[in-house]
């Protein structure tokens, strides 16, 4: 059982941890866990899934990070928080039938939060 | 309503052309002609208060971009204060407000000498306060300002785009509402199926465009199941005809809370029915 599974078992008896869900949790990529991954897995609201993830951050199980997305939704960079994102990022765009790199201000691009499983965390 | 009262007949005509012809005929049944002729007659004959009422009643029949945001907090500036260039047009009930702004374009024309001038189109918008969301909608301005000129139009630059307004709202603390739950619930119930989608895996963003616009759920069960657990970005859905929805096709970015109606609605209904359905399923 990985530490995320153990944590979820500890914090909520309301989460019905069926064998399928346990398997799904273990298959989450520990380097990128999105709120929507957790929401869909447990069939709960986005707000509740977010609270679970934030509780896991406070418990030291997960670490929160933020990524900045290019207009085509590809991720250009990520950092522990918005303040530490690079001021500009480079994104691919099509101009006159060619793929070119365009520089954007990070402040003007969409951001998404995600979570990383902290290494060596005991279940 | 000062903007509408002081607008030229041409400005009013162009605004009316944003609406489907069936709705124009229903509003002014005694008039005859093509859509362009109808709009010109209405702009000439109708009083501006009547035009405002028509715009408010039929807003959701138009092509529009809708942004679904988190509910407004008491200490947050109302979206209206972030639309200083837009004039209040009216309201319905206590929670739906209509505005008329201007989309300004700077045009460089060679006719035969070069000249630069600004041209503006009236831009209807709406703000709705719901218990679980704040919804801001903009009617899509399709009119190509190049058609206003007989000379060569060298360049057109639009000021004040939706993207800029959304950035201002973001800086005022408004965050988009995640619609993944609602969209996936409607998808699971076979109310609709997706035929194009971008979605986020752990380390990549994937695009799937189904051949011949076939539905993902109907055609590729494994792909559909995979997508149910992932954040969705720009996705195009076709609503099942049997549902009787006035919307046939729409685009949605559930992760960023944006919904795009790129076609007029069919029959007597409007796109608010679809937005209501998404929000109810999103709880």
Could you characterize what this model shows?
The complex is a heterodimer of chains A (123) and B (283). Chain A is α+β, with helices and mostly antiparallel strands. Chain A has 4 helices and 5 strands, in the order ααααβββββ. Chain A has helices at 3-11, 19-27, 35-42, 46-58, and strands spanning 62-69, 75-79, 88-95, 98-105, 111-117. In chain A, the strands form 2 sheets. In chain A, strands 2-1-5 form a 3-stranded antiparallel beta sheet. Chain A has a two-stranded antiparallel ribbon with strand order 3-4. The longest helix of chain A has 13 residues, at 46-58. The model of chain A has no long low-confidence stretch (mean pLDDT 87). In chain B, strands 1, 2, 3, 4, 5, 6, 7, 8, 9, 10 and 11 form an 11-stranded antiparallel beta sheet that branches. In chain B, a hairpin with a 3-residue loop joins strand 3 (96-110) and strand 4. Chain B is globular and about 55 Å long. Chain B is built from 10 helices and 11 strands. With 283 residues, chain B is of the alpha+beta class. The interface between A and B is medium-sized, with 21 and 20 residues.
**What is the typical, i.e. mean, pLDDT of chain A?**
87
What is the N-to-C succession of helices and strands of chain B? HHHHHEEEEEEHHEEHHEEEH
Helix content of chain B: 25-40%
What does the largest sheet of chain B look like? 11 strands, antiparallel
Q: Could you spell the SSE succession of chain A in H and E letters?
A: HHHHEEEEE
Quick one: how many beta strands of chain B?
Answer: 11
């Amino acid at each position: 059982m990985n530490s995320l599974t153990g944590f979820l078992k500890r914090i909520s008896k309301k989460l019905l941890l069926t064998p399928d869900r346990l398997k799904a949790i273990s298959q989450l990529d520990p380097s990128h866990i999105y709120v929507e991954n957790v929401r869909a897995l447990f069939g709960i609201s986005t707000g509740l899934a977010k609270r679970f993830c934030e509780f896991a951050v406070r418990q030291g199980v997960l670490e929160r990070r933020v990524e900045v997305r290019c207009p085509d939704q590809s991720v250009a960079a990520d950092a522990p928080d918005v303040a530490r994102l690079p001021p500009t990022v480079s994104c691919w765009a099509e101009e006159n039938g060619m793929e070119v790199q365009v520089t954007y201000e990070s402040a003007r691009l969409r951001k998404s939060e995600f979570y990383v499983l902290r290494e060596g965390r005991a279940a | 309503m000062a903007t509408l009262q002081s607008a030229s007949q041409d400005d009013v005509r162009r605004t009316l052309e944003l609406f489907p012809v069936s709705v124009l005929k229903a509003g002014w049944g005694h008039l005859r002609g093509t859509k362009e002729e109808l709009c010109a007659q209405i702009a000439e004959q109708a009083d501006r208060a009547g035009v405002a009422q028509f715009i408010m009643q039929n807003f959701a029949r138009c092509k529009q971009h809708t942004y679904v945001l988190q509910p407004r907090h008491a200490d947050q500036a109302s979206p209206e204060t972030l639309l200083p260039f837009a004039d209040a047009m009216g309201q319905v009930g206590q929670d739906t407000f209509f505005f008329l702004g201007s989309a300004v374009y700077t045009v460089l024309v060679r006719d035969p000498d070069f000249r630069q001038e600004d041209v503006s189109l009236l831009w209807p918008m709406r703000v709705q306060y719901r218990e679980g969301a704040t919804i801001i909608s903009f009617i899509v301005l399709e009119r190509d300002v190049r058609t206003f000129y007989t000379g060569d139009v060298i360049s057109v630059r639009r000021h004040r785009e939706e993207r800029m307004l959304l950035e201002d709202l973001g800086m005022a603390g408004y965050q988009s509402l995640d619609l993944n739950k609602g969209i996936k619930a409607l998808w699971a119930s076979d109310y609709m199926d997706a035929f194009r989608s971008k979605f986020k895996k752990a380390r990549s963003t994937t695009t799937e465009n189904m051949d011949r616009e076939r539905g993902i759920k109907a055609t590729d069960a494994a792909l559909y199941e995979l997508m149910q657990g992932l954040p969705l970005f720009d996705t195009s859905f076709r609503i099942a005809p049997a549902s009787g929805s006035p919307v046939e096709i729409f685009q949605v970015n559930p992760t960023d809370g944006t919904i795009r109606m790129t076609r007029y609605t069919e029959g007597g209904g409007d796109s608010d029915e679809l937005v209501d359905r998404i929000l109810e399923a999103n709880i």
